[in-house]
Structures are given as structure tokens and as C-alpha cells.
Amino acid sequence: MARPSQPVLSRQRIVEVATAILDAEGLEALSTRRLAHELGVRAPSLYNHFATKEEILDAVGDAIIAQVDLSMFDASDWAAALTEWARAYRRALAAHPHAVPFLASGPARRPAALALADAVYGALVDAGWPAGYATRIGATMRYFVAGSALGSFALGFADDPRVYAERYPHLHDAHRLREHHRRVDDGAFELGLATLVSGFVALYGQVVKT
To answer: According to DSSP H, which parts of the chain are helical?
Structure first.
């Protein structure tokens, strides 16, 4: 039997290579021409699996969101589940920071993203939250998690103390942030998460009649 003249393509392989390009070089580097080159095929071959570049991006985004564990919504009370979900969501996004701006635009028609939204909203409504509050809580959590996954706060500061020495006296230790960026960033996320969820718990007692 003659061997195929081009590598055999699949949707999964296309998504894997597209994700690798996105992670390494960002969204602007991901073109159908570049993707075809990395796959060792001609660009028109991609359209046997995806009609447009946007469909490829949707598949990449959905593969990332599919990594988010949602099982906590079946096993925990709503506040504990929301906390664990936020951590899982952040881990998935932080592993692919170049995809965050695209994913932050909303679930559109992506199945995994819609399943995530359904799980969060459903858990809140089932716990007694009115629909409007459940929607706003879900949106608030998405803004918070996506923002935390965009990049490091601590790595945004120069590690040269001379930058701050004279003009910014309150930032005299800011040059140390880069060295401890994981502890700073993770600590900031956990503080914000605890503050948000405790605020929701307090609000729950006012809004939901038990």
C-alpha cells in the first residue's frame, strides 16, 4: 500500500500544534499558514477539519477549558465549590496565558466553556441564589480569575533598587518582588479569592431566605 504523501491530520493533532504555537509565541503568531507549516501539510488541508481559523481558535480554547475540573460542584457546598473551582480555573488559564484574552471574551458556542458556565450558574441557583445574583457572581469570578491569569504582578517590577531609591520611597523593597513572584502572586490570588467568597457568604444570608 502506498504511503500518504502528507502526514495524516486529525482535529486533535491540529489543536495540539496550534496550542503549542499559541503558548510559545502568542495569538498573533497563530496563522493557518504557520500552523500548516508546523504540521508539514499545505494550508488547504486544514479546512478538511475546520472551516475557518476562528473554528481552530475555538477548538484550542475549548481544549484548555476542558481541563478545568468541575466535579467539586457535585461534592461540596456552593462556597467551597466556588473556591476550588476558581483555583482549578486559574491553573488551566495560567498554563496558557496567551489564550486568556481570547477566552475572556466569553464562551460563545464552545461546549466545554458552556458546560463550565452551566456548572457554576447551576450550583449557585440550586443553592438558592436568585438568577440575577448567580449571573453576577459568575461574572465577577471570571473577571477575577482571568485577570489573575493574564500575567504576574510581581514580575512587573524591575529588580534594580536604583529605580525606586529617590523618587518612589514607598517602593524601596519593590526590587525584591521578582525574586518571590510565585509567593506574592499566589498569595494575592488566595487573599482576593477568600475576600470575594466570604463577601458572597455574607450576602447570601441577606439575599437568600432559608
So the answer is: 11-25, 32-39, 53-65, 72-75, 78-94, 100-103, 111-126, 131-149, 181-207
Are 52 and 73 in contact by the 8 Å Cβ rule? The answer is: no
Whether residue 127 contacts residue 77, with contact meaning beta carbons closer than 8 Å, is answered with: yes
Reference 123, options 90, 169, 87, 76; nearest CA is 76
DSSP 20-65: HHHHHH-GGG--HHHHHHHHTS-GGGGGGT-SSHHHHHHHHHHHHH
The answer, as to whether pTM is greater than 0.90, is: no
Residues 168-198: pLDDT tens digits? 999 999 999 999 999 999 999 999 999 999 9
Q: From 3.90.850.10, 1.10.357.10, 2.60.300.12, 1.10.3210.10, which CATH number describes the 70-208 domain?
A: 1.10.357.10
Contacts of 167-172 with CB under 8 Å at 24 or more apart are none
Q: How many residues does the chain have?
A: 210
